[in-house]
Amino acid sequence: FYVFVSNDPFVSESVAATMAQPGVSSHFHAGAAGALTEVPVSTIGRYMRVQLTATGFLQLAEVQIFAPGGD
């Protein structure tokens, strides 16, 4: 799955188009996510999206986003 971060709203639902959108930072996590999965992005943004690259389901129990220097 991908984690996208941007200061501006995402204009597309397509992975390829979102990756090509100016100002979007993309971070790929290969394989299945575990019970606890961290994806360090080191990017500041107002909008965040988690998106699969294939059809199927992505089940999230909780998503936490921390500010720089926060825990």
N-to-C terminal Cα separation, in Å?
A: 24 Å
Q: Report the average pLDDT across residues.
A: 87
Helix content: under 10%
Q: Record the strand order, biggest sheet.
A: 2-1-3
- Total strands: the figure is 3
Structure explained in plain terms:
The protein is mainly beta and 71 residues long. The protein has one helix and three strands. It has one helix at 15-20, and strands spanning 2-6, 25-28, 47-51. A three-stranded antiparallel sheet has the order 2-1-3. The longest helix has 6 residues, at 15-20. The radius of gyration is 12 Å and the shape is globular. The mean pLDDT is 87.
Summarize the structure.
The protein has one helix at residues 15-20, and strands spanning 2-6, 25-28, 47-51. It has 71 residues and is mainly β. The protein has a 3-stranded antiparallel β-sheet with strand order 2-1-3.
Helix and strand layout, with pairings?
Elements (H helix, E strand, L loop, with lengths): L1 E5 L8 H6 L4 E4 L18 E5 L20
Antiparallel strand pairs: 1-2, 1-3
Structure keywords:
71 residues, mainly beta, 3 strands, 8% helix
